[in-house]
Amino acid sequence: xxxxxxxxxxxxxxxxxxxxxxxxxxxxxxxxxxxxxxxxxxxxxxxxxxxxxxxxxxxxxxxxxxxxxxxxxxxxxxxxxxx
Length: 83
Description:
The protein has helices at 19-30, 49-65; strands spanning 2-10, 34-38, 43-48, 70-79. By secondary structure, the chain is an alpha+beta fold. Strand 2 and strand 3 (43-48) form a beta hairpin. Helix 1 (19-30) packs antiparallel against helix 2 (49-65). The radius of gyration is 12 Å and the shape is elongated. 24% of the residues are buried.
């Protein structure tokens, strides 16, 4: 199955990207995903189910370690039979 993940990490800082936001960007850009869009107020990426779930696990663990106090995410199935 093909999945899309959308997420944000907090707390926000409009003047300088916090460490947890930089870690989130690194995790998503290093994952085996495509259609990656990283922005200041939200991030999205798509890929095969296993790749997205592996990236989400790393994202949660590493951004919390880097100081995130809240992580909001949504995962949608966007295609079947693709891995």
